[in-house]
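Late entry, evening session. Most of the bench is empty. Finally got around to the prediction I had been postponing all week. Sequence below, unchanged from the version circulated by S.P.
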Amino acid sequence: MIVYSVSINKELVNLMIGTTISRQHENFRQVIQSYYQLTKPRIIPLLLITTAAGMWMASEGQVDPFLLLITLVGGTLAAASAQVLNCIYDRDIDYEMLRTRSRPIPSGRIQTRDALLFAIALGSASFTLLAVFANLLAALLAMSGIIFYMGIYTHLLKRHTPQNIVIGGAAGAIPALVGWAAVTGELSLPAWLLFAVVFLWTPPHFWALALMIREDYAKVGIPMLPVVAGEESTTRQIWVYTLLVVPASLLFIYPLGVSGVVYGAIALVLGSIFLQKAWQLLQSPTNNQLARGLFKYSILYMMLLCTGIVVDSLPITQQLSTALADNLQTLVSAIPFLPFPV
């Protein structure tokens, strides 16, 4: 018994020493990198481009550079805060899934308490920055995004219903409202349409990813649609939402009239490719390569669609479009009228 006790104590001491050595050899750069990874930085740029699109559309292409910088930084801080809180809440399933096990919290590089303080600091900085330099509405919307993402999506929906990403998609669409509100101090119909486009785009985007990693979700009991309903049902839902988002993206042209021919051409081309990829996946629901292709394209689709909004709203684009329309009208009026024979 004594020998066994000594052996156990030696193992505990060695474990404590090993942990101490590991922490002593973790340099400042590695600590910063761990906190950076905690914010899931690859997700944030896609949120910011919808913010920028909202700002450019609201300002008719004449955005105040300082306000743009403040809003994007504030949006980055809010999104980072939400992602850190998500990492804290999902630390148990992150440890179980192979692709997420190396994240800072499940790997032990960052303690839960430290991550929580980091999230609070990020959220507070976001609210202060937006409230002081933009307006209170933009700041409150950014905070509502954090609350919705954590309270509604992560806590209530993610682990309990296969429709989690549908309703939870509202959290990812809020940055578009933040951008519009930062410029105008209010929310009008075009802002809500941009919100709706992002909202409808989210299920095809995320379910394509879920098809690729359905086994991971099944392992930890997350009822993502491919796990609960299977690939065929998921691809049908992807097709339906793609059919909804593409026409919705054209409503900026008519009846709202806030975007013009340049955006229209971009939206039509992008939408046609989106529909084609969704249709191909519908014909072959178990093809992970098609799911991967749709997932990657959905990111490109949203980025280029928002870029189209920005480009179309620029004064120089508006001037060129007007000049082109005038010249076309002049050309048509110069064509002699040839009456049909009676």
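Two things to note before I forget:
The first helix runs from residue 2 to 24.
The chain has two domains: 39-94+103-187, 188-318.
Will write this up properly tomorrow.
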